[in-house]
Design brief:
Pfam families: Alpha-amylase
Organism: Streptomyces virens
Shape: globular
Helix content: 25-40%
Radius of gyration: 23 Å
Oligomer: single chain
Number of strands: 18
GO molecular function: hydrolase activity
InterPro entries: GH (IPR017853), GH13_cat_dom (IPR006047), O16G_dom_2 (IPR045857)
CATH class of the largest domain: Alpha Beta
Low-confidence stretches: 1-11
CATH topology of the largest domain: TIM Barrel
Keywords: Hydrolase
Strand content: 5-15%
Mean pLDDT: 94
Strand order of the largest sheet: 9-8-7-3-2-1-11-10
Structural class: alpha/beta
CATH architecture of the largest domain: Alpha-Beta Barrel
Distance between the termini: 42 Å
Number of domains: 3
Length: 563
């Protein structure tokens, strides 16, 4: 069905991604076609008309490859196939063809830092023994101690515990995540060439771009002797050195790998595109987004910022400057498959830290008590703010329905390895991965003809797309109208702040884009005067010439700015 007021970017538009709206699908939780409780590729295909009507430009699929699900699909056993529980390559091809008929592009997740321990290469490595060519594709080392009984280094896993596991012949292998996710050795030319083959495999099937998981982790300093980290064992971006000298993360050598990828991307017409998941310092992020590298990088500063005008002003300015330096555009994200949904984050006290939110999950979302109506109101305001910014907006499935985090999942239902690996100190990411509600009723609220692999709340049906569709006050219709308008309003990639900076300290963000498009966000508890102009859309009902608290409005004026 047609879904745009203006033509979708043509298949040969090399810059389609620069200001695209990309919708992230976590396939196992999106739509279940065959009724086994797990979302699948045919389920995605069946709901593509919904995404076309929503008005997005592209659909990004989180991993759908064969996997033992040690980490929600990010433990890949075969990079060039579909998990049989999710479908077949023929199903994938039909999904791509359907997407293209609807004017949508398809992006896929690529997981290059590590494979599954079920990958044929790792099974070969286990069988081949120490010193073999098969083991050189991964990172195997002898242990320390009199009998090699100690791990080779003190490196911790990102999921808790040591980053080394011993195999029966006495050697140890590196896994910076779960033990079922052994790290590749990217110094090995065979590894590099195999990933070039994978990139071509999916590009040849019509994939337009790739989201690169753990993009900052591929190059490691594996020279003997391996370096201990000592007290510098934190993997948080602000704890990493800014000179590329960490033995594991964000090493300068990683960009040589991506220059090779760029040659693959540029062999296609239009060139394929990629966005890096790189948890690095902002000053180091631009290299991942360069035209010689992946092209774009996720801006996690925006996702992690409080809904505070002054803080957001600083983050937006910095993100746009970083993107300009890279020759790229910035990315704007409020939620994804790894974080608590932003409706719930905004429902908690404004000073809650990441650690506070993790502690809140451990109380099953009861302490502190979330103010969900306030969270929804703030999420609506944040959505209009985000969608007005220059660059690409990445939406996470269900945010257009205003879904909150399912914080009270029973411990017995948790699937995230973080829960076990942390010894129950981190509840994990299952609460944002609960399958979507499509209908008011049904065994899984329209997710599929059967149940769902994670339990859905009893009231999940009230958020269903069926319920919200046509309701002008719903979150879904706000997103639909915003995306429709955005297509008519987006012109260049510039932003101009309007008014004195001190207004941001009072909670007001006001910027203009080409054609007289103004965005005004009141992120305070007091109403403010609305500037003159034609109101195109507001995240909450307006009160005459006042912009109510926690509300964003889009206006059109006769000039591009108030200069």
């Amino acid at each position: 069905m047609p879904h745009h007021d203006s033509p979708a970017p043509s298949a040969h538009d090399a810059d389609w991604w620069r200001q695209a709206v990309v919708y992230q699908v976590y396939p196992r939780s999106f739509a279940d076609f065959d009724g086994d409780g797990i979302g699948d590729i045919r389920g995605v295909t069946s709901r593509l008309p919904y995404l076309a009507e929503l008005g997005v430009d592209a659909v990004w699929l989180s991993p759908f490859y064969p996997s033992q699900l040690a980490d929600g699909g990010y433990d890949v056993a075969d990079y060039r196939d579909v998990d049989p529980r999710l479908g077949t390559l023929d199903d994938f091809d039909e999904m791509v063809a359907t997407a293209h008929r609807l004017g949508l592009k398809i992006m896929v997740d690529i997981v290059p830092n590590h494979s599954s321990d079920q990958h044929v290469w790792f099974q070969e490595a286990l069988a081949a023994g120490p010193g073999s060519a098969a083991r050189d594709r991964y990172v195997f080392r002898d242990g320390r101690g009199s009998d090699g009984e100690l791990p080779p280094t003190d490196w911790p896993s990102s999921f808790g515990g040591p980053a080394w596991t011993r195999v029966p012949d006495g050697q140890w292998y590196l896994h910076l995540y779960a033990p079922q996710q052994p790290d590749f050795n990217w110094d090995n030319p065979e590894v590099r060439e195999d990933f070039h083959t994978t990139l071509r495999f999916w590009s040849d099937r019509g994939v337009a771009g790739f989201r690169v998981d753990v993009a900052h982790g591929l190059a490691k300093d594996l020279r003997a002797p391996l370096r201990d980290l000592g007290e510098q064992r934190s993997y948080q971006p602000d704890a990493l050195p800014d000179d590329g000298s960490h033995p594991l993360w964000d090493r300068d050598a990683v960009h040589e790998i991506y220059r090779g990828w760029r040659q693959v991307f540029d062999s296609y017409d239009p060139p394929r595109f990629a966005v890096a998941e790189a948890w690095v310092r902002p000053s180091r992020r631009t290299a991942y987004a360069s035209a010689a590298g992946l092209g774009q990088a996720f801006n996690f500063d925006f996702l992690g910022a409080r809904l505070d005008a002054a803080e957001l002003h600083t983050v937006i300015d910095g993100s746009l400057a970083d993107a300009r330096r890279a020759g790229a555009t910035s990315t704007w994200v409020l939620s994804n498959h790894d974080v608590v949904r932003h409706v719930s984050r905004y429902a908690l006290p404004a000073d809650c830290t990441k650690q506070d939110i993790e502690a809140w999950l451990l109380t099953d979302g009861r302490e502190p008590v979330p103010d969900l109506p306030a969270g929804v109101r703030r999420a609506r305001a944040a959505a209009l703010l985000m969608l007005a910014l220059p660059g690409s907006a990445y939406l996470y499935q269900g945010e257009e329905l205003g879904l909150p985090e399912v914080a009270d999942l029973d411990r017995a239902d948790l699937r995230d390895p973080m829960w076990v690996r942390s010894g129950g100190r981190v509840k994990g990411r299952d609460g944002c991965r609960v399958p979507l509600p499509w209908t008011r009723e049904g065994s899984s609220f329209g997710f599929g003809p059967g149940g769902s692999w994670l339990p859905q709340p009893a009231d999940w049906g009230r958020y269903a797309a069926e319920v919200q569709s046509g309701d002008k006050e719903s979150v879904l219709e706000l997103y639909r109208e915003a995306l429709r308008l955005r297509r008519t309003l987006v012109a260049d990639e510039e932003l101009e702040w309007v008014g004195p900076r001190e207004r941001t300290r009072r909670g007001l963000l006001h910027f203009a884009r080409a054609g007289g498009w103004h965005t005004v966000s009141n992120l305070s508890d007091e109403p403010v005067a609305l500037p003159p102009g034609e109101v195109l859309l507001a995240s909450a009902p307006l009160n005459g010439d006042e912009l109510p608290p926690w509300t964003t409005a889009w206006l059109r004026t006769g000039t591009a700015s108030d200069r």
